[in-house]
Amino acid sequence: MAYRFYLYISDVKVDMLLSQLDPSSTGTRTTEVGVDLKVVNGRRSVETSPDTDPVSRLDRVLKRLEKDGAIGTLEEPGPFFRGRLPMRWGAPAHGDDMSLVFFGARAGRTVVGLGGSTRHVLGSSADAADGPPLTRSLLPSLLDGLRLDPRIAALFTATDPSPDPDGLALRAVREATDGLQGPAQTVEFVAKRLLHGPDPEAGDGSAVLLGSPLYVALAD
């Protein structure tokens, strides 16, 4: 039996998708228990919510996305994409802000970046994600989190007569990935595609792919 050691699960994305893919999962089940004591006949109703476990909810979402053909690869991402590769990751601290967790790697000619809110990292403290009100899983907030790094901020402040917002964002993802420190860990993941395009400076067919993960788990 294969086991997953989860590093990150976005219960917000999982619950949002599950309510659309399987509306019945958000309901409640009612169980009635009758007791006949000859003199007194009592009935008790107990309501339980199905799939209260985050891992079981995640599995239901993944199975439905796979059935619908919505999960692509790193080379050909669909609305979602999956991967298994060594990645460096961490929650860069810029002042008091540690709200962004970022995973990055190069897979062949593709630079892969995954970003999300620190609060979805399993075992994180309750105040680990103190920061902006907009979740880091959304593209504008994720890029704002990357721009807290002075090296990346310089890309957006440099004088350019015809700035390309998409190109700048792709460069920011590449810089953030190449700037990650520490050892790499082999992980598997499924992520929502946020940004995908050719590396604006490579010129060799390389691409940059940015997503926000539904989950990330260690892969042994």
TrEMBL record:
Any single Pfam family the record assigns to this protein: DUF7019
InterPro entries documented for this protein: DUF7019
Listed name of the protein: Uncharacterized protein
Organism: Streptomyces calvus
